[in-house]
Design brief:
Helices cover about 70% and strands about 10% of the residues. By secondary structure, the protein is an alpha/beta fold. It has a 5-stranded mixed sheet with strand order 1-2-3-4-5. Strand 1 and strand 2 (about 365-375) form a beta hairpin. Helix 1 runs antiparallel to helix 2 and helix 4 packs across helix 5 (about 105-115). Residues about 20-30 have low confidence and may be disordered.
């Protein structure tokens, strides 16, 4: 009995002593841990981030769930630009859901920023949507959500958030531009112009707005205003090349090829890399050279494009169409001849075929029709027969419509036989149509032979 009582007394003493030790441990930890947190905060405030990291790690070694230690460790890593490590610590702090002594707003802003840096757009978007719910009058969160939806190619969602941004801050230029840009892409030109012009009224140096206003004016053929807007957007380093290219395209549409070439060559000089933009500029410039009969320069540009990207648009087809031009000087002279020389060479072809040219009908810069009579016949009393010679130096195949138009012209003039010749080829439907009618078709090979023998 005495032994049992003795054992009980020993157990009671050990129990009480152990309890006292545990209580003292928690008291000491609660006394010294806040002191360490205060030290940690002070290190962060003073910019002593390496010391802060050591203190935070020491706290976490003793209590891995300390929210403040995770948060301030994240702050230290963030300020040292160790973003991946910072993200780990911020996420650890966020998992607890306890924000008594830290700024949840700052934490979520940092999380969103670091998710963007690590290309995790969906997670960043979740953070901004939470921030919007908690801070519904903070326009910057709506704007960032809109930007992230744009990155996800969800312009309809992005538009809603940019509109909310402008409701909270009517002069927020980036949102005004983005709204105008999205409305432009949706062909809503009138409203797009409204937002873009408002953004310029807030910031005169807002060159991106000028650029999109230029695109809108170009789309509606308001070329004069488009040229002015692109002239303004040239001042933006990032928009200069595209602005010059658009000006070149506008001058082409206006038929002012000399100015178009000047603008496109300026754009070329400002291109440092052989990227898609530069190839597009070369392509437009080559087409401009082609339209002005400077085919040699056009071929040089097409060959440069082909060397980088053989499948770029119709460059391979262009080079094929001008293959003879690259090898045959007579064909080259024919294709590059001025309007006056083209007429003279066409007359020379008709005369080589034993015809007298009575009338010349200029259909375009590249197409001509000659109404002719035979020069001589074998029989003195036989009436000379009329004939229409249609000559084309277009690079695209002759279609059925062109043959039909020639056939109609034959009926009008009472012509029984005609000849169609081209520097390219004929579509299948054009060949089938001509096969049943008195129309002789001569393709580029036949034309090349005629030029060679006619010695024009």
């Amino acid at each position: 009995m005495n032994n049992l009582f003795l054992y009980f007394q020993v157990f009671l003493v050990v129990f009480l002593f152990g309890g006292i030790i545990i209580i003292v441990f928690f008291i000491v930890r609660n006394i010294f841990s806040p002191k360490k947190i205060i030290t940690l905060r002070n290190y962060i405030k003073s910019g002593n981030y390496k010391a802060a990291i050591n203190v935070a790690k020491d706290i976490l070694n003793k209590n891995k769930n300390n929210v403040e230690a995770h948060y301030y460790l994240g702050e230290a890593y963030y300020n040292l630009q160790k973003y991946e490590l910072a993200l780990i610590e911020y996420k650890s702090a966020e998992k607890s859901g306890i924000y008594a002594n830290i700024s949840e707003k700052n934490l979520r802003e940092k999380l969103a920023e670091l998710f963007i840096k690590t290309q995790n757009i969906d997670e960043a978007l979740k953070e901004y949507i939470l921030l919007i719910k908690q801070n519904p009058t903070e326009y910057s969160y709506y704007y960032m959500a809109g930007e992230l939806f744009l990155q996800k190619s969800q312009s309809d969602h992005a538009l809603k958030y940019f509109v909310y941004t402008v409701k909270l801050n009517k002069n927020h230029v980036p949102s005004l531009i983005n709204i105008g840009m999205i409305l432009y892409e949706n062909k809503n030109f009138t409203n797009a112009q409204k937002y873009l012009r408002h953004s310029i009224s807030v910031d005169k140096s807002n060159y991106k707005a000028y650029f999109y206003l230029g695109l809108i004016d170009e789309s509606i053929n308001n070329y004069k205003e488009a040229l002015k807007n692109f002239e303004a957007s040239i001042k933006d380093k990032d928009l200069k090349i595209r602005s010059l290219m658009e000006r070149g395209k506008i001058y082409m549409s206006m038929g002012n090829y000399d100015e178009a070439i000047i603008e496109l060559e300026r754009a070329m000089k400002n291109c440092e890399q052989e990227d898609n933009i530069k190839m597009n500029i070369k392509y437009v410039l080559a087409n401009c050279f082609e339209l002005t009969r400077n085919v040699t320069e056009a071929i040089i540009l097409w060959e440069e494009i082909y060397a980088v990207s053989p499948g770029f648009k119709d460059v391979a087809e262009k080079l094929t169409n001008y293959q003879e031009l690259r090898m045959d000087d007579r064909m080259k002279d024919f294709m590059t001849a001025t309007d006056t020389d083209f007429i003279d060479m066409s007359k020379g072809i008709a005369e080589h075929m034993g015809l007298n040219v009575l009338e010349v009908d200029i259909l375009s810069k590249d197409s001509i029709e000659l109404f002719c009579l035979e020069q001589d016949t074998k029989w003195r009393n036989v009436k000379k027969r009329p004939k229409i010679i249609h000559i084309s130096r277009k690079t695209s195949p002759i279609d059925e419509v062109t043959i039909r138009n020639l056939n109609e012209k034959m009926r009008e003039k009472g012509v029984i036989r005609s000849v169609m010749m081209t520097s390219s080829s004929y579509s299948k439907m054009a060949v089938l149509f001509a096969k049943e009618r008195p129309i002789e078709l001569i393709d580029k090979n036949g034309l090349q032979e005629i030029l060679k023998n006619a010695n024009i």
